[in-house]
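Table S2 (continued). Query chain:
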Amino acid sequence: MTKQEQYITIGLGATLAITIAIVMAKKKATPKINMKVFDSPDQLGSGNCMDKRLIKMLWQLAKKAKYPVFQKINSGARTAYWNSKVGGVSNSAHKMPKCMAVDISTPTITIRNKIVVMAKLIGFKRIGVGRTFVHLDIDTSKRQNVAWGYPSGTKPPINPFI
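Corresponding output:
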């Protein structure tokens, strides 16, 4: 083997090692998400319908806010029955097959406000703010850059859009 062939072989080996390291780092950076946390309580497996963009944004939110978002999901996908049972609006972004909304438990005002501010920074344009939870959705068929309080229609305690 010539010197040039040795250099090429070493270069290819180094490139392969770097590529493998990058792929392994990315696998560690993107944890596997248990989609069951999004299930409507009356239909097992329904959380699998959740919009992939929403999941990606929630992962970014968890990382930026340093908050266990995926362990704090109160509501994700909803069947029509469950949406009605919990008092959801008829055109809720939670409803299947849309599956474009989540409610995240926020036990303190500080955590709630942090989630609201970070959600806006990440790109959420629809944010509902409750006393102990934050609603986030990515339904572009509805008004954008809006925050609301609960009961629905009341002024939110924090509004990142003003």
